[in-house]
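User: Hey, quick favor. My workstation is busy. Could you predict this chain's structure for me?
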Amino acid sequence: MANFDIAGIVQGLHDARQQWRQAHRPASEARGMEFPSREALAGIVAQLKGVLFPMRLGPTGLRQESEEFHVAHALDSALHALLRQVQIELSYSAALQQRTDTDIAGQALQATQAFGAALPEIRMMLDNDVLAAYQGDPAARSVDEVLLCYPGILAMIHHRMAHCLYRLGLPLLARIVAEQAHAETGIDIHPGATIGAGFFMDHGTGIVIGETAVIGQRVRLYQAVTLGAKRFPTHDDGTLQKGLPRHPVVEDDVVIYAGATVLGRITIGKGAVIGGNVWVTHDVAAGGRVAQAASREEGLGVK
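Assistant: No problem, here it is.
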């Protein structure tokens, strides 16, 4: 029978944890700190998908005459479970900031109520996304096929919910929800990104959208597009400055083809078309065209 140095490994892991805690926060804060549960959030999101689209993403065998009952029951269960995760994140945030006078329970309830109230608007935004995918893809046979099969739509279901959580001051929950879709689809959308209605990611694999990106209505991206940062400003001590606008602004009706890389706080004007595999680091005027060869650029200009 094989022998392993279990005691030595356990001690080594203990030492590594203690070294991390001493370097990054006081040990008194680390003890007993609870973190949001990825498993719990996965279950909550699954329930909420069935709330948003009960006949397509709800339980197998659901009949239309039972739809309202299912939505009410699943919504009540999901929101109560979410409330617990919100409380955990707010408590975690308060501990890191060494705040002790915070009404965690009241803030958590208010945030969860606001999230629930936003679900009808999220559903309408997603309807526009589904319709954009159906109308923009000649291979799509029905809106049901789009909703059930397209990874871009799955990513947007997660993003619309994650962005709401982000705006409610719950960035950790938002990031967990976003990364669940990233892991399943290969589409990486930061929950802070603002995305207008009718957004369509064709194929989608490898798309990256940064935290401060702003995307207008009826925008279409193809696989492997990056809306990223060009540089990362630092403080005097060399640490990164957080929260600065550093990702592109993409106005309405823009199309960006596969493999394009768009970097920095630049503006891609309304109706512009960015060709595949190009590198864009300057503004593109409304209606502009950017192709691979510089000699084929049309309508470029600084706004």
